[in-house]
Amino acid sequence: MDVWRNAYRSAALLLLLALLTAGPAAQAQDLNWRPFEEALAAAQTHGKPVLVDVWAPWCGWCRKMKRDVYPSEGVRSCLAGNFVLTRLNRDAGEMMHRYRGRRLSARQLAQALGAAGVPTVVLLAPDGQRLLHLPGFIKADALHPVLAYIATGAYQRQSFAAFRTQHASAGGSC
Questions:
Q1: Which residue, 59, 84, 158, 171, could crosslink 43 as a Cys pair with Cβ 3.0–4.6 Å?
Q2: Do residues 142 and 162 both lie within one domain?
Q3: Is residue 23 domain-shared with residue 43, that is, in the same domain?
Q4: How does pLDDT run across 11-34, given as a tens digit for each residue?
């Protein structure tokens, strides 16, 4: 009888562990984050824009973006099929990156991308050209329409205000 009770407890603990690791934080990990140079190459090959998450290890708002914003349903679904993703630790002191023919430290690259602080979301065209940067913490419902604007290519033909009006009336998908 004790054997069955222990087996039941073990199974219950495993199920609980599986449920806990399948939450939003685990989903953020499931997104395909690539090293910066690899992300640029993949974006150019596949013709997809790049989302650069500029962060720092000490930044609580950066952790909140990773934990709550990127795994949220609308943002996650928009990111997964339409963007190449990369994270840039602005404080990675000795890490060097290549961007637009220059060799830059992580901090220099963050500055070149327009990220004066963290967190900052930077969106690049498939050729690596900076489209825009969004400084500070951004709620999922504010980030989603910006991602849709870039993912659909609407940024090439209309203003964000016009897109947002049209996007809201069309149901808001990516």
A1: 84
A2: yes
A3: no
A4: 443 333 333 344 444 444 589 999
